[in-house]
Amino acid sequence: MHKRFSFFLMLVGFLSCKESSTDTIVPATDADITGFVNLYDEGTSLVGNAGMKVSIQGSSPLIAATTDASGKFVLPDVPFGTYTLVYEKEGYGTYKKPGVVHVTDGSSTFISNTPSLGKVSTTTVTNLTASQDGSTILVDVTTNPPGSIGNTRYIRYFLSPAATVSKDNYSYASSGYISQINPYQARLTSANLITWGFTSGQTVYVKVYGDAFWGNEYQETPTGLKTFPNLNATSANSVSFKVP
Known about the structure:
Elements: H1 2-21, E1 30-36, E2 38-39, E3 53-56, E4 64-66, E5 72-79, E6 81-88, E7 95-102, E8 109-110, E9 116-117, E10 124-133, E11 136-144, E12 153-160, E13 172-173, E14 177-179, E15 184-189, H2 190-195, E16 203-211, E17 218-219, E18 226-227, E19 239-242
Parallel strand pairs: 1-8, 2-9
Antiparallel strand pairs: 1-5, 3-4, 3-6, 6-7, 10-11, 11-15, 12-13, 12-14, 12-16, 16-19, 17-18
């Protein structure tokens, strides 16, 4: 009887091992993408972080979420891959974050670089002139509302050898400038212009737009050009000058 019982236990153990050897672990194929945003007005004042839609560009059906009061969003069950995140809210320029790599061991991917996003500029450029002072080009920019100590405005200029220069067609885009005087004067030296790829004697066109402190700019491939979502499209015509 004892031998039969021992044989039975051995048989059960063998069958158990055989059954478990056929079990397979299915690897995770998706996980959440989470992150935060910080929302501002067109200047430097924080506003409520809720209500910004964050989505996966090109997903079908659309994978999207809305930020809560803390600015947090959770994109659920996103298949592993590399994506562009799109951030949208009324009054804000659309911001994109390309090249988000979402390949994990099954845990969520956290976007550690939290974007600070501002509202679209209400500053319009009403007049633009360019003149030469020795080896320096003086670009005078008049805005509405006018920039002042108590009413800071923000602007950005674009340069190109083409008369069709614009925020979408440029050879050089400046940093954002703070204007607290009207007109604001940008000084472009000959050395600056040559560093930016222009040559002495070349005709260059400049166009200026009102911007926000947080420009929400991003770079998309394959164009290589940055997109500036917060610019105010209402602007004076471009003007030209010759590189000293």
